[in-house]
Amino acid sequence: MSNNIEDDTVDKKQLEVLKKAKKDLESHLGKVDYHRKAVKEILTHFDTNLDTGLTKAEAQKRLEKYGTNELEAKEKESLWEKIKEQFDDLLVKILLVAAVISFVIALTDDKDEGIAAYVEPFVILLILIANAIIGIAQDSNAESAIEALMDMQALECNVLRDGEWNIMDSKNLVPGDIVEVQIGDKTPADLRVAEMKSVSLQIEEASLTGESKPVNKQHEIIQSTSNLLQDRKNMLFSSTIVTYGKAVGIVCSTGMDTAIGSIQKEVMAASEEEEDTPLKKKLDQFGETLSIMIGAICFLVWAMNYSNFSDPIHGGVVRGCIYYFKIAIALAVAAIPEGLPAVITTCLALGTRTMAQNHAIVRTLPSVQTLGCTTTICSDKTGTLTKNEMSSVKFFYSGEKFDDFVDIDVEDTTYNPQGKVDISDKKKQAHKDLLLALATVSTVNNHADIKFSSGNFEKYGAPTEAALKVLSEKIGALYNNFDGYDKNPTPFSDSLNIEKLGTLEFDSKRKMMATVVSGFSEDHKISLLQKGATERIIDRCATLRLGNGEIVDLTKKHKEILKKHYNEIASQGLRCIGIAAIYNGGELSTINKNNKNTLLSSFDMYDTYESGGTFLGGAAIKDPLREQVPPSIQQCKEAGIRVIMITGDNKNTAEAIAREAGILVEGQTSEGNCYTGAEFEELNEEDKIAVLKGDKGKVFARVEPRHKRELVKLLTKQGEVCAMTGDGVNDAPALKQAAIGVAMGITGTEVAKEASDMILTDDNFATIVKAVEQGRSIYSNMQAFIRYLISSNIGEVASIFMTATLGIPEGFTSVQLLWINLVTDGPPATALGFNPPDKDIMKKPPRDPDESLLSNWVLFRYMVIGIYVGAACVGIFIYWYCCDDFGDGHTLVTLDQLRNWSECPDWKDFHPVGPHGQTFEDPCTYFTIGKVKASTLSLSCLVMLEMFNAFNALSEDGSLVQMPPWINPWLILAIGGSIAIHVLIIYIPFFADIFGTASMTGYDWIITLAFSAPVILIDEILKVFARIKNNIELQKRLKQD
């Protein structure tokens, strides 16, 4: 119930934010749908005109009123606030309190321990400071998405004020300004097109709306009731690029009121609601549980020794209280895995290096393992699943009669003019003239060009025209032996001896483009070459040229049959372009240099000029699917990961691409699986949730940023762990909202990259699959070293708890435990991160995000192991005092004497001798100063136990026989290094004095191994039971299936 209330609260807050934003916008500009208003109305609304624009004085007033045309940046978090956040953790607070108390005790204690008394608090503080620095470094890019959005805005623009056109900084634009934009310009604000300065105007909106091709704009009123940005054909949006044409527009919205400004608001809101990664949630939960347990055990140990506070050895109740309090602190230090944050950070960092080698750059470390439990990938289509490059993959014409349809497949090589045309030799020769005519019209009636640069073929001009240019070269190569494409990518085009006399530019009404030429036809000097929407071209044509050269009349019935066939091609997600020619030039047969401006400026005559032509055929163009996508999506399915396509493109194209990619499979109909943003928005909450349930792929087309983010939120509410891929500005809010945002590195905008958690440097969907595998492997290894560290810490706690319970002198100091937890344990724990992944890791379903880091069975196993570790450490301590002289001549005591050592001042005739004849002024110091050797043995036993435990942690349930230590050579090296480090603090006097250790003999090491080695046998026995348990559960699942 609490979760629902929390979600409702979040939704209400969002609603309030949106209402306020809407109210502010309406108060500034009034509630106006600019795309549905005539230019005259808008000029009146803003009190401006197209001849003179605003006056400078009026512009200044509006600048003061509306503010600058810039995106507002969220106030950055101060360094002090970031530091405070790093200490807002229960485990950290416990350590901090322990350090402060240790420092106070060191100051007030009258025992002359010197600088050694301050080592413990100093080391603890050093750990906390190091972890804080790491945390702050990881969080350094928190506001970068907003800054990237600000960078996207245009810097300068051409503005009309006081009747004069001037270049000025776009941040000073205000509503009502008159702005001119032309090819190559970045739109400086949201503009209403007021006047076309060219026949057509095309805008690249892919980064904002997801449209895969440039959008044709107009100045007429839009009658549609749709409020989608894609449907506002008379509006230019801030940050979009003019790819063709020139126009004058009226500034309607600036700054945060623009379309890109609304996206920024979404990004800011998403960053506030950003979900913690599964790892962080689990570590937080683990930390809280551990903290409560530590607190309870520490208090219990301190309280249960209440009766010993007044023992004579302490010199008073207060001193006794402090003594046992220090034991409680040592227990806290032992229980807290201080090295865990550093080891996790190191493991994730190593994982990021591996992933970078596989073309995935991780921006936030926890994201490495988040992919491992990803259940749904919400993928953009354009530039992610597809190449975001237009390519001609088919051309078509009529062979021996009008309904003898010939469809020729063309190899998809994008802008590389070299590629296979799948045509038989017979057709190639029989239909040569028609094929060359198709190629000639495609390349001549065209503004684009292909260049070879930096090892790649690149387009210059509109993507659709570039695709036709490439197609013409591939057809031309059927009849010519061209080479040297790196020097001249368009040899066929250059070989043509055709003169262009004029162009009837493309516009959204005619949906076609035509070029007047001479030299195309041998019989006629003037010809009009045409291309455009196939249906429009067919409707305008009077005849059809067949492959055999015959020209036949086109009746209405013939036209319908032709259009039906080409619509079937279009339904495959292809964009069909019709190609035709008017061989005698038609109404333009008399055109020449003197009259061409007069003839071509008569726009009302274009319909007449373009009628009566001969239909030649057409080309099918698509934004091709990346080759690696289908197998990658299949791997996702095998791994239990659902892929959902979310795109701004049209529904039919999106569905066709989804079927080709394998997102939609056989049996999945469009109904219930494909929705437009508007259709999905009309559904109620229950229906939306029902649509998103299940494990089948889905397609959402014609969506806006708010739709994307809502989809991610709904999926997250259902318990899905969402990865969102994308490359455009429009993806930023959802990238930020998702558990992990994956941006494209090559085609991706800076906004998408900065809002993401991971960047794919090769823009390859297949890289995501590798990242998932790496994420799963890292999580598995992370569990291995957490098992290792926790089992070690449980052993330390058990040792101290047993020591306090038995009443014997404490075997470890806090400094020794800190050293083991940080230095000795660190290398093996890190090396466990190099464990190779299981071979079937991508055949398993995603992990449950709510699954605990350690299962109850694993906790039980390591509780057993921990108890043995504690017993072994205490046992060797007792063994030194009570059972064996170790050949060093020290005095043996009874177990009863050792347990009641605090009563030593009352013993008579007690004159102990330490190792090698060491004597004591105060006999009772035999249990304090004289315990150095026993403590060293206990410490060494703990180290060896933890090294053996590292081998045990290679596999959760696999025997060391199945997974021998040498499968991870790094672990062997790390264990060797840890033992070497431990040897240093034993045999080097400087370190021995700091850590309170003594030299060990060969016999000492044999005894140490005898106490520590059995831990391997115990864990092997427990693993046998674990494998039996797993097999029983597997058989149950198989029976259920």
Automatic annotation (TrEMBL):
Q: Which GO terms describe its molecular function?
A: ATP binding; ATP hydrolysis activity; P-type calcium transporter activity
Where in the cell does this protein reside?
Answer: Membrane
What are the record keywords, sorted? ATP-binding, Calcium, Calcium transport, Ion transport, Magnesium, Membrane, Nucleotide-binding, Translocase, Transmembrane, Transmembrane helix, Transport
Membrane topology according to the record: Multi-pass membrane protein
Per the record, a Pfam family? Answer: Cation_ATPase_C
Q: Which Gene3D superfamilies does its entry note?
A: Calcium-transporting ATPase, cytoplasmic domain N, Calcium-transporting ATPase, cytoplasmic transduction domain A, Calcium-transporting ATPase, transmembrane domain, HAD superfamily/HAD-like
Coarse class of the primary localization is membrane
**Top-level taxon of the source organism:** Eukaryota
EC number in record:
7.2.2.10
Report TM segments: 90-108, 114-134, 289-307, 327-350, 785-808, 859-882, 970-990, 1002-1022
Show where the Cation-transporting P-type ATPase N-terminal domain sits: 33-107
Listed under GO cellular component are: membrane
Q: Cite the InterPro entries for this sequence.
A: ATPase_P-typ_cation-transptr_C, ATPase_P-typ_cation-transptr_N, ATPase_P-typ_cyto_dom_N, ATPase_P-typ_P_site, ATPase_P-typ_TM_dom_sf, ATPase_P-typ_transduc_dom_A_sf, ATPase_P-type_domA, HAD-like_sf
Task: List, alphabetically, the NCBIfam families matched.
Answer: ATPase_P-type
Per the record, the similarity remark reads: Belongs to the cation transport ATPase (P-type) (TC 3.A.3) family.
Question: What is the official name of this protein in its record?
Answer: P-type Ca(2+) transporter
Source organism per entry reads: Euplotes crassus
